[in-house]
């Protein structure tokens, strides 16, 4: 993997992808859950979709790093 070219998506872009594409939420629902505007989600998803498509088409690795996010405590999420 270290030898491959890579594209990067941010942690918040990954979360937008997860909520919208994987969980099937609307952009409005995703925006509300993430605490940002719907146009911001649309821009985040456009960047993430382009990066993922580039990786798939050109055989690049996807690096997930950076972005504006905070991690919740496992207890707050009901996990142990």
Describe the overall structure.
The protein is mostly helical. It has a single domain, classed as Arc Repressor Mutant, subunit A. It has three helices and two strands, in the order E-H-H-H-E. Strands 1-2 form a two-stranded parallel sheet. Helix 1 crosses helix 3. The chain is globular, with a radius of gyration of 14 Å.
List keywords for this structure.
Arc Repressor Mutant, subunit A, 10% strand
Q: Output the helix-strand order.
A: EHHHE
Helix content: 40-55%
What proportion of the residues form beta strands (DSSP E)? Answer: 5-15%
- CATH fold assignment: Arc Repressor Mutant, subunit A
Mean pLDDT: 88
Rg calc:
14 Å
Strands, count = 2
CATH architecture: Orthogonal Bundle
Enumerate the spans where pLDDT stays under 50 for 5 or more consecutive residues: none
Characterize the main sheet: 2 strands, parallel
- In quaternary terms, these chains amount to single chain
Q: Strand order within the widest sheet?
A: 1-2
Please identify the structural class as seen in this structure: mainly alpha
Text of the CATH class: Mainly Alpha
Number of separate helices: 3
- Domain unit count: 1
């Amino acid at each position: 993997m270290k030898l491959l070219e890579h594209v990067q998506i941010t942690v918040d872009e990954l979360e937008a992808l997860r909520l919208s594409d994987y969980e099937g939420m609307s952009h409005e629902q995703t925006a509300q859950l993430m605490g940002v505007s719907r146009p911001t989600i649309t821009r985040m998803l456009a960047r993430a979709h382009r990066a993922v498509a580039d990786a798939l088409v050109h055989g690049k690795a996807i690096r997930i790093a950076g972005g504006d996010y905070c991690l919740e405590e496992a207890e707050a999420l009901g996990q142990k």
